[in-house]
Design goal:
Elements (H helix, E strand, L loop, with lengths): L3 H59 L18 E7 L9 H15 L4 E7 L1 H10 L5 E3 L8 H16 L5 E11 L2 E10 L18 H79 L1
Parallel strand pairs: 1-2, 1-4, 2-3
Antiparallel strand pairs: 4-5
Helix pairs in contact: 1-5, 4-5
Family: Belongs to the ATPase gamma chain family.
Subcellular location: Cell membrane; Membrane
GO biological process, one term: proton motive force-driven plasma membrane ATP synthesis
């Protein structure tokens, strides 16, 4: 027969866990609203800077110049070294959010195992995972993904950009888990360098005009900003996705805790009923023996 005190203790413990997960869900929901707004605004800017870059690329070509002349756009060089930047969270309790990013990064490492791969990890979860797996880490950044900052994002990507210009690395790939909507996230694998401009559907609608002698300067400056902002946007997007995943995980945990409390309460009532039945039988048996 189950011990009533033990079951009661378990019920109390699970109820406390339920309160904690419910509170964490509410916190994540509040944070998600702010992060979602920031992600949408950043997305609009990132999309616009991509369009401007594409238009200037077209203008550059229209002036009988090739964008491949600029280092950032050179796709013809032999790929010997690849930089992979992996964005994870600093905290857990967010379902498979980190696991999906780490799985994708591991697959990329395996895919490019014949190359010299330099792994840059953002977030404690990614750092701890790859250290445990014995994977060499080129650079690591902690307490960045939880508080996205343009200055820090620029510092992170500047290392890769300088090495790309000096031919120390030949490709820069960014892996992150991005925000899709309130209930889902999407793994994103973006090749930051070399840059591939978007195709302009209607070139005649372009409002940008540049002088031939200015095109290269503007192009190089804008490309640098484009790469920096994409790094920053990945951090913002990842944070929104993290809060979304945590909100879902805590909601599921709260529901499971509630179901567990119901099951334990049922067990407690059954055990209590057994105790009462046993006591009644003993009383009746005692009365019968006195007759």
């Amino acid at each position: 027969m189950a011990n009533l005190k033990d079951i009661k203790r378990q019920i109390k413990s699970v109820q406390n866990t339920e309160k904690t997960t419910k509170a964490m869900k509410l916190v994540s929901t509040a944070k998600l609203r702010l992060a979602e707004l920031a992600a949408k605004e950043a997305s609009a800017y990132a999309r616009k800077i991509s369009e401007v870059l594409s238009e200037i690329s077209y203008e550059y070509s229209a002036n009988n110049l090739q964008s491949s002349e600029i280092k950032f756009f050179n796709h013809s060089q032999e790929v010997k070294t690849i930089d992979i930047i992996c964005v994870t969270a600093d905290k857990g309790l967010c379902g498979g959010f980190n696991a999906q990013t780490l799985k994708t990064t591991t697959e990329l490492l395996e895919l490019h195992k014949d190359k010299n791969v330099r792994l840059t990890v953002i977030g404690k979860k990614g750092r701890d995972y790859f250290k445990f797996k014995g994977v060499p880490i080129f650079k690591e950044y902690i307490n960045v993904s939880s508080t996205p900052n343009y200055k820090v994002a620029k510092e992170i990507i500047d290392v890769a950009m300088k090495d790309f210009i000096s031919d120390e690395t030949h490709r820069v790939i960014l892996v992150s888990n991005g925000y899709k909507n309130m209930i889902s996230q999407q793994i994103k694998v973006v090749e930051l360098l070399p840059v591939t401009p978007l195709e302009i559907e209607n070139k005649s609608l372009s409002l940008i005009e540049t002088e031939p002698e200015d095109s290269k300067v503007i192009f190089e400056e804008l490309t640098g900003k484009y790469v920096e902002y994409n790094m920053y946007y990945a951090l913002i997007d990842s944070l929104a996705a993290e809060h979304s995943a945590r909100m879902q995980a805590m909601d599921t945990a709260t529901k499971n805790a509630g179901e567990r409390v119901d099951a334990l309460t049922l067990s407690y009532n059954k055990a209590r009923q057994e105790v009462i039945t046993t006591e009644l039988i003993e009383i009746i048996s005692g009365v019968e023996s006195l007759k």
